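Milestone M4 deliverable, item 7.
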Amino acid sequence: MLSDIHGVLPALEAVLAEPDVAAADRIVLSGDLAAGPLPAQTLDRLLALGDRASWVHGNAERELLQLARGGETSIPDPIAPWAAAQLEERHLALIDGLPLTVTLEVECLGEVLFCHATPRDDEEVVLVDSPLDRWAAVLAGVTAPTVVCGHTHMPFVRLVDRRTVVNPGSVGMPYGTSGAHWALLGGANGPAVQLRRTLYDAESACRALVATSSYPGIETWADDFVRSQASDVEALAVFTPRTRG
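Output delivered:
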């Protein structure tokens, strides 16, 4: 389960090289995949996974599509309009066809619903410590016993009224700690839900991004999001007011 890659191809490559990922029958891609410094290259790498990959869209996919087709969004980060302009029509057609959720049978877990933010909205915010009434609202109508979401870039596993909720964290822009975060689900060997972190050389990744991305602000972007990740405290200061919607 990979989420929030944000066009950081070196981080994605590090995760795809993990033995458990390389051997996986299914890789679920849970949105916000390309909005970053190597958008087209990241989508092409994910497309190379072929039928092993199941995709859902995040708010970033929706916003990239809007921007590429002449619309506007409220995204303050200038990399989004730039990233949208790098995508070819085949990328846009792919994004346009992605579902909000996908439900799969997973060994040892049964039915699992995958989404980006919540099952009903691609940018709604819920956190590990959000109250049960908030979780009840965003999961209303969901019958799957396990729900996997992303969006907040902070990994967790928690119970919500007998339902397991998993957030794998972010591959490309983790908040709170370094590395590329993902989750391994199912399998008879070990826990049915495993939060994983792939460590990789951030300095080499920054150099690679600077060398290969044409984004005008790539050095600053790489320093901010790859070399010096935001802390969980900083992220929560932004996200917590948005959980009351």
